[in-house]
Design goal:
- The complex is a heterodimer of chains A (344) and B (508).
- Chain A has 2 domains: 161 residues, no CATH class; 140 residues, no CATH class.
- Chain A is built from 15 helices and no strands.
- The longest helix of chain A is centred in the N-terminal third of the chain and has 23 residues.
- Chain A starts with 17 loop residues before the first helix and ends in an 11-residue tail after the last helix.
- By secondary structure, chain B is of the alpha/beta class.
- In chain B, a hairpin with a 7-residue loop joins strand 5 and strand 6.
- The mean pLDDT of chain B is 89.
- In chain B, 36% of the residues lie in helices and 18% in strands.
- In chain B, the strands form 4 sheets. A 6-stranded mixed sheet of chain B has the order 1-14-13-17-15-16. Chain B has a 4-stranded antiparallel sheet with strand order 2-8-7-4, with no helix packed on it.
- Among the domains of chain B are: 208 residues, NADH-ubiquinone oxidoreductase 51kDa subunit (Rossmann fold, 3-Layer(aba) Sandwich); 117 residues, Fumarate Reductase Iron-sulfur Protein, Chain B, domain 2, CATH 1.10.1060.
- The chains are: A mainly alpha (344), B alpha/beta (508).
- The interface between A and B is large, with 45 and 72 residues.
Chain lengths: 344, 508
């Protein structure tokens, strides 16, 4: 009689892994990142490298403190993804220590204090960004002018010295540091200008901000790839972008002078990046189909509300964090009808 | 015919190889057969034979102690050597009484104990069901549920399930190729028992040879009640409730039966066994088993006498390869891993699958759940395994039950979909076991409460009665005192009288 080891069914291996998923999402960010670098210079890459380094360091320290094994957690890619998403929200020449503080909040507080991978209530990247945005509003508002508006983005050496020493990259720093299109829109419309007048500013492109809209296009490209590969659910991005369009379309149709064109909203700020890569974070989002639709729509609506009435120019991070709070409750009330369950 | 979709499911890799093309071979009888007397969860049988008794082939060895069910028949002539506890191959870790039959191949005591019923169409459903019970006919799709018990309620449509969706297994596919006509006849027979006016044969569209064979057989029979339906190749297409949804667009009500929709589903192999039992008088004493996997030297389909030890069957298939790592009874998705090859083939054994180390699920440590929802996307009963996992991890059975833990069909797809490699199905099975235990405890505590309340009521009644009796006695005592007083008075009077009398006498 031959003996065998036993195990519980099923006996086929699982199809994917967390690491493969995270790496694929990171790969899908690549087109957008390249576009970002093209318009804003190598500072973007330095921010990504900084955030990734801090993220892995803090992740390793947290794992050690929590007496958890380094493997597979250090290389599961989740800390890297949070770091990249965080870095993409920063102005390219943000001082290095902002990254460290942001990652401390994201990885140390939002992720590990809540129990590590899979247990975080809030999106780590957005917690990190919200913390530095609230704490250092000046540093976080020093955006560069995108390529195509006169000055070339600063080079690698100039970016490095600006990030690490705080010295401006060139005598023209002041003209370089510039408000984002959303800032401009807010300030000018507060002065009573109509949208047509505001949009005369070369800062604006066809839909959103110049350069920004192209970056958004490339993020959307990566996002569509993930949708095609079924790595992210379709409900959240569709609901996020759809709710923004549905809400702004009638307002714009009534008063195009006061209310921006729906696509201007979509292509401004980080909305596209958020819709495909941030709102879709499974851990802090909703699990049910209807829950995801509500979650996405909530992010869209809250973004618009905060853009319109809040005191921060872009609102995606706050919208995401607010919806993170609501996610467990949404899941509870949107459980799908089980097979054979009576329709109620 | 319009087909519908069931939720979730996955097209699993086709691992059947050329198994459907390999003719069924007869597995020779081993020296000893092991026949467990428990078919499935509720099918405990009572032995009809004693140790040392000589039995004939097809003879009933054990039968259910209630009406219905399915008997156990002797796969070969021989002598009952022992009745002892043996491990059950289909219920891991459980043991039950089994008959040990020493095969006497040269024994002439070989005949049919059941009379063939050529005129089955004129027999009553009760007669036919009784035959299926005595011939031991049970579901051969893997559950071994007694066939007669699934024929009690009237139905308008009988579905013959040939959608063999488990990767690796091809016993039904091959049986359809070889005996399509008898299977269809068996379907008509079963339809007659439940009064169904339609028989649908469902096979997966990838089962080409079986489909060809069925087409030929359908043309041969030319019966308008019969219909062939090709369903998509998608696991778990052969799940009863999934198949019903695909064919009808309807869902079996939660906690209900297909019969609630006027439907009944039987496996194609079961239909053949029913046909053999009724028309040929043969009991269910063997079944077709796919012996396959990278750990088997020569994969093939075998007609195996029930009770044959797996080791004997593997020997026929050329033995194990050097890489043999895991022995499964059933398929790769729902099969049971056996600790050794001494277990017998039973009615539920569709397949003996031997996997090698590379194809076995790796034992890599599970990562935490990231709630990606891939499990919910594939879950056929439309549960949210990620939330079930969360609830069970927290030990909250009540919450898990609310989320539909009891509706899990054990298909195992959530495990396949899970990027964190969490053994979800194992956790859910444990949870379901917990639910059953809780339910039993609730029943028991309910019974205990009833007993307690009954006792309390009895005591109270007793007390009340005692009190009443006491009161009565008191009342009686009181009345007795008056009586006594009256008696005393009377006596006193009487004595006075007698005194007077005596005085008078004295005076006379």
């Amino acid at each position: 009689m031959k003996t065998f080891s036993t195990a519980a069914a099923p006996h086929l291996p699982p199809r994917g892994s967390v690491r493969a998923l995270m790496l694929e999402v990171l790969a899908a960010l690549l087109p957008g990142v390249l576009a970002h670098v093209y318009f804003f210079g190598p500072g973007v890459l330095i921010q990504i490298a900084l955030a990734c380094a801090f993220a892995l360091l803090i992740e390793a320290v947290c794992l050690r403190l929590r007496a958890r094994p380094m493997e597979p957690f250090l290389t599961d890619g989740s800390a890297l993804l949070a770091a990249v998403l965080f870095a993409l929200c920063l102005p390219p020449l943000t001082p290095w220590w902002i990254s460290a503080i942001g990652m401390l909040a994201a990885i140390g507080l939002a992720k590990h204090a809540y129990g590590g991978l899979g247990y975080n209530l809030f999106n780590p990247a957005m917690v990190g960004y919200a913390v530095v945005l609230i704490s250092f509003p000046f540093e976080l508002s020093q955006w560069l002018a995108p390529r195509g508006l006169g000055l070339e983005p600063p080079g690698l050496v100039a970016s490095l010295s600006a990030i690490f020493s705080g010295t401006p990259p060139a005598p023209g720093w002041d003209t370089l540091a510039q408000a984002t299109p959303l800032d401009t829109l807010r300030q000018l419309s507060a002065q009573g200008l109509t949208l047509v007048e505001i949009r005369d500013d070369p800062l604006f492109g066809d839909f959103g901000g110049r350069g920004w809209e192209w970056i958004a296009n490339f993020y959307a490209l990566g996002g569509l790839w993930l949708l095609y590969r079924r790595k992210i659910p379709w409900q959240t991005p569709v609901a996020t972008l759809g709710s923004v369009i549905l809400l702004t379309l009638p307002l714009w149709a009534l008063e195009p002078d006061v209310h921006p064109f729906p696509l201007q909203h979509i292509f401004s700020g980080a909305l596209v990046l958020a819709a495909f890569f941030i709102v879709t974070d499974p851990v802090s989002g909703c699990a049910s189909t209807r829950g995801r639709l509500l979650f996405g729509a909530g992010v869209g609506v809250l973004t618009l509300l905060i853009r319109r009435w809040g005191s921060y120019p872009d609102a995606v991070a706050f919208a995401v964090l607010l919806m993170n709070c609501a996610a467990p409750m949404l899941d509870r009330y949107t459980r799908p009808r089980i097979y054979g369950e009576a329709k109620s | 015919m319009q087909l519908y979709r069931f939720h979730g499911g996955l097209p699993l890799p086709g691992l059947k190889g050329d198994l459907p093309a390999l003719a069924i071979r007869d597995c020779p009888l081993p020296a000893t057969l092991v026949l467990p007397m428990r078919l499935h969860a509720r099918g405990v049988l009572q032995p009809l034979v004693k140790v040392g008794e000589r039995v004939r082939r097809h003879q009933m060895l054990a039968r259910p102690d209630h009406t219905g069910g399915a008997a156990l028949n002797a796969p070969a002539a021989g002598v009952i050597e022992a009745i002892e506890l043996r491990g059950l191959p289909h219920a891991p870790g459980e043991v039950d009484q089994a008959l040990i039959l020493r095969v006497d191949a040269g024994d002439p005591l070989d005949g049919l104990p059941f009379a063939p019923m050529a005129n089955w169409a004129e027999r009553t459903p009760t007669e036919l069901r009784e035959r299926l019970v005595e011939a031991g006919v049970a579901g051969l799709g893997g559950a071994a549920f007694p066939t007669a018990d699934k024929l009690l309620l009237p139905c308008h449509t009988l579905i013959l399930n040939g959608a063999e969706c488990e990767p690796y297994i091809a016993c039904d596919a091959r049986l359809l190729v070889e005996q399509a006509e008898q299977i269809l006849r068996g379907g008509l027979l079963l339809a007659h028992v439940v009064g169904a006016e339609r028989v649908q044969v469902a096979v997966e569209d990838s089962m080409r040879p079986a489909i060809e064979a069925l087409r030929v057989a359908l043309a041969e029979l030319a019966d308008p009640r019969l219909q062939l339906v090709e369903v998509p190749t998608r696991y778990p297409q052969g799940g009863e409730r999934q198949l019903i949804e695909v064919l009808t667009g309807q869902q079996v009500p939660r906690g209900g039966l297909p019969q609630n929709l006027g439907l009944v589903v039987h496996n194609v192999g079961t239909a053949l066994s029913a046909w053999r039992a009724v028309v040929h008088g043969e009991a269910l004493i063997d079944r077709v088993v796919s012996v396959t996997g990278p750990g088997v030297a020569q994969p093939g389909n075998w007609r195996v006498p029930l009770g044959t030890p797996v080791a004997h069957l593997i020997e026929q298939a050329g033995g194990y390869t050097a890489a043999a790592e895991r022995l499964l009874m059933g398929g790769a998705m729902m099969g049971v891993a056996l600790p050794d090859d001494g277990f017998p083939i039973v009615k539920a054994s569709t397949c003996v699958l031997v996997l090698e180390a590379d194809s076995v699920k790796p034992t890599r440590a599970p990562m935490p759940c990231i709630r990606c929802g891939d499990c919910a996307d594939v879950c056929p009963p439309k549960l949210m395994p990620q939330l079930l996992h969360e609830a069970l991890r927290g030990g909250d059975l009540e919450q898990a039950a609310e989320l539909g833990l009891g509706d899990c069909i054990d298909c195992g797809l959530c495990d396949i979909a899970c990027p964190s490699a969490i053994p979800l199905l194992a956790q859910f099975r444990e949870g379901k076991h917990g639910l059953r235990v809780d339910r039993r405890k609730a029943l028991e505590s309910g019974a205990a409460r009833e007993r307690f309340e009954a006792r309390a009521a009895r005591l109270e009644r007793h007390q009340a009665e005692t009190a009443e009796r006491r009161a009565n006695i008191g009342a009686k005592a009181a009345s007795a005192a008056t009586v006594a007083a009256a008696i005393a008075k009377a006596k006193a009077l009487a004595s006075a009288d007698s005194a007077r009398d005596s005085a008078q006498k004295d005076g006379e």
